[in-house]
Amino acid sequence: MIITRPAEERGHANHGWLKTYHTFSFANYFDENYMGFRSLRVINEDFVAPHTGFGTHPHRDMEIITYVLGGAVEHKDSMGTHGVIRPGEVQRMSAGTGVRHSEMNPFDETLHLMQIWILPGQQDLPPSYEQKAFSEKERQGRFRVVASQDGRDGSVMVHQDMSLHATLLGKGEKTEYALKPGRFAWLQLARGSGTLNGVALKAGDGAAVAEETSLVLTAHEPVEALLFDLL
C-alpha cells in the first residue's frame, strides 16, 4: 500500500528570507492527519536567502538530519562544533539532553536543504554530532545508506531503529529496495518526477509505504530522492 502526500498540500510559510514547506505538522502549521510517520517527525524543505539563516536556538531529545540540495549551510553549536555542509553531505546532530545551534547561509547562493527530525529510541542521550560526505557516484543508480542505527557502510549513526537512503537517477533509470516484512517506508522526492511501484510522484511529493516488500523507483526525468526504512 502506497499513500501519496502531494507537494502542494504541504504546509507552507514565506518569511521573506525563508521559504519553507512542511510535510508534517511544524511550527504554526498543524494537520492532525500529518503529525509524522512512525519515528519520522519532520521533513522540512527550506530555501534560505543569501546572508541570512536560523540564529542560535535550542533543541532537545531529537535526532536532526540535514541533507543539502543546493548552496551550503554553516553550522555552529554549543558542543563547539563548527562546519559547513554542502550538497552530498549529511549532518546528524543528536540533541539529547540539550544543545543550542545556529544554521546560517553566509554565502551568495540560495541555500536549499531538507531538515529531518527523527524521534530517538531513548531520552536524555548525550548530545553528539556527525557529518559525512557521499559522492554522486555512490548515490547514482542505487539507494545508498547515509544514516542508520548501526552506522553501517560509513553512514552517520542515529539513535533509532531506522535507516535513510539517498539516490540519484537519470532519466529512464530505476532502482529497487527490499523492505523487510513488518517494516514501513517513506519516500520523499526532492527533485524530478517518476513512479514508485507505478504510483506517480513529482518533486516535493512524499509517499507512505506499508505492506510492501519490494520498492521500485523509476525516473521519468532526473531524480533525487530520500528513502526512510522505519520500524
Q: What would you call the quaternary organization?
A: single chain
From the helix content, strand content and strand pairing, which structural class follows?
mainly beta
CATH topology, what is it called? Jelly Rolls
Helix content: under 10%
Shape: globular
Highest-level CATH class:
Mainly Beta
Question: How many domains is the backbone divided into?
Answer: 1
Number of strands: 20
- SSE series: EEEEEEEEEEEEHEEEEEEEE
User: Which sheet architecture does the biggest sheet show?
Assistant: 9 strands, mixed
Q: What is the typical, i.e. mean, pLDDT?
A: 97
Distance between the first and last residues' Cα: 16 Å
Proportion of β residues? over 45%
The H-level CATH homologous superfamily, spelled out, is: Jelly Rolls
Give the low-confidence spans.
Answer: none
| CATH architecture classification name | Sandwich
The DSSP helix count reads: 1
Rg result: 17 Å
Topology:
Layout: E1 2-5, E2 11-14, E3 18-22, E4 40-48, E5 52-59, E6 63-70, E7 73-77, E8 82-85, E9 89-94, E10 99-105, E11 111-118, E12 128-133, H1 136-139, E13 144-148, E14 156-157, E15 162-169, E16 174-178, E17 184-196, E18 199-202, E19 206-209, E20 214-230
Parallel strand pairs: 13-14
Antiparallel strand pairs: 1-19, 2-3, 3-4, 4-11, 5-10, 6-9, 6-11, 7-8, 7-10, 9-12, 13-15, 15-20, 16-20, 17-18, 17-19, 17-20
